[in-house]
Task: inverse folding
């Protein structure tokens, strides 16, 4: 796509490669190193994501549907950032098992804001969302979520029912999050704004894989922070970051001398 | 100043005609010798009046008038011909030339026609300004519903790419369509529909009919 310079693409591919290499090497070095590597990579990526998405809010304000959408998106990113830091503090400072913890409240609330973001973003375009398209995209998400739930229901685990349900909520919500994004991808096909939706789509797929892997590994208490399943998790944040960073380039601030004519003279 | 284009395959006639028009401070911006030239000249110069010979080799006046009408339904095109057959007459009726003159030129007649067109132009310029403002405000409102920064972005891109403003979109709706599609892809349809729906509420549709037509495509 024209809007993405080759340079940015190289940065993104390098970032994903670096994430994978660091996690793999740290695991080879030992579990403690893997915890530290994953935690600090997460801190770095999510901090930049918060800053980038906040930039979008500054540019848009909260007026119009896009303004409200990005306000929700920033709130979603901030809530997940808080959740990540709670997890980090529980694990590195208190040295206790971070799951379940108050972090789950922030993650789950974050999903609501994420859905609000997609609703506001797609609202101006509701007239061309056909019933067929809506059924197709939601059907895809529901089938994916249903398959995950069905598969997990067949598994035996030491986890309590409530923990199992909590763990299951994540991949299911991730799967459902794909529906409005898929809708947006179809609506904005060939447009420049489509790129951020593609990044969110692949990011959410990363979360589906990582959250499903997290739950699956937790069935036998085999998960630890920094496990290889964290790679798609960190990639997902990288996708979010790359998408929002490119979005800020679409609606960039241009030379003020080239301002388009305002309507003052007609008033 | 009134701008004129002359399309005629007879070069001597053209030279005499140019001399005469320039006496009356009428600027001849371009000269062509066939129907294809006429269309290219109209696209490039948008003259206030095009004098178009009917019979020309290859592309004739009928072809040129038809193409110019597609570009601008309100273009002032005066047909100049040595003789007008029934076959041509029928075709011309549907293409609505501004006037039809027969050769040899009656300079008094031509002067009167130019005066009439100039007067109409002066009367309609205020009207056009209103329509341009209407189109511009409607575009702004439709984009503002999405976000004021979307309005800024579309406006900035229109200026950067086509050196045109929202007010110019009445004449060049295809520029607006291009920019919206560039940003929103298929989603641009919704913005264009919203603009079109808002404009269809206004009674006098004639001056904005071409704008509405292009947005519908």
Result:
């Amino acid at each position: 796509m024209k809007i993405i310079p080759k340079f940015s693409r190289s940065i993104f591919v390098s970032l994903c490669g670096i994430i994978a290499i660091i996690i793999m090497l740290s695991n080879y070095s030992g579990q403690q190193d893997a915890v530290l590597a994953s935690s600090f990579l997460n801190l770095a990526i999510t901090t930049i994501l918060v800053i980038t998405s906040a930039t979008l809010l500054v540019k848009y304000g909260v007026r119009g549907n896009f303004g409200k959408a990005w306000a929700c998106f920033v709130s979603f990113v901030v809530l997940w950032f808080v959740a990540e830091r709670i997890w980090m503090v529980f694990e590195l400072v208190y040295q206790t098992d971070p799951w379940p913890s108050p972090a789950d409240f922030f993650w789950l609330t974050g999903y609501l804001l994420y859905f609000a973001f997609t609703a506001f973003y797609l609202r101006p375009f509701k007239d061309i969302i056909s019933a067929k398209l809506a059924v197709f995209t939601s059907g895809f998400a529901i089938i994916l979520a249903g398959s995950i739930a069905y598969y997990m229901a067949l598994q035996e685990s030491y986890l309590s029912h409530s923990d199992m349900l909590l763990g299951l909520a994540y991949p299911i919500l991730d799967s459902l999050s794909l529906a409005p994004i898929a809708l947006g991808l179809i609506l904005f096909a060939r447009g420049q704004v489509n790129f951020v939706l593609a990044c969110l789509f692949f990011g959410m797929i990363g979360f589906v894989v990582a959250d499903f892997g997290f739950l699956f590994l937790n069935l036998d208490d085999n998960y630890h922070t920094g496990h290889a399943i964290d790679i798609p998790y960190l990639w997902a944040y990288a996708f979010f970051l790359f998408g929002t960073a490119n979005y800020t380039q679409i609606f960039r601030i241009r030379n003020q001398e080239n301002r388009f004519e305002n309507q003052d003279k007609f008033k | 100043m009134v701008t004129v284009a002359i399309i005629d395959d007879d070069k001597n006639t053209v030279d005499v005609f140019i001399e005469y028009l320039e006496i009356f401070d009428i600027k001849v911006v371009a000269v062509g010798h066939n129907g294809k030239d006429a269309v290219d000249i109209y696209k490039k110069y948008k003259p206030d009046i095009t004098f178009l010979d009917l019979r020309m080799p290859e592309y004739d006046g009928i072809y040129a008038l038809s193409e110019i009408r597609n570009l601008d339904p309100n273009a002032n095109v005066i047909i100049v011909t040595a003789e007008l057959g029934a076959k041509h007459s029928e075709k011309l009726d549907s293409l609505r030339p501004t006037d039809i003159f027969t050769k040899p030129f009656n300079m008094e007649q031509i002067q009167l026609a130019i005066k009439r067109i100039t007067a109409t132009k002066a009367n309609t310029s205020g009207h056009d300004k209103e329509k341009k403002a209407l189109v511009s405000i409607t575009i702004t409102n439709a984009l503002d519903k999405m976000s004021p920064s979307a309005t800024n972005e579309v406006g900035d891109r229109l200026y950067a790419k086509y050196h045109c403003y929202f007010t110019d979109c009445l004449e060049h709706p295809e520029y607006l369509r291009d920019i919206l599609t560039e940003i929103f892809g298929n989603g641009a349809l919704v913005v264009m529909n919203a603009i079109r729906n808002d404009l269809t509420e206004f009674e006098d549709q004639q001056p904005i009919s071409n704008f509405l037509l292009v947005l519908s495509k």
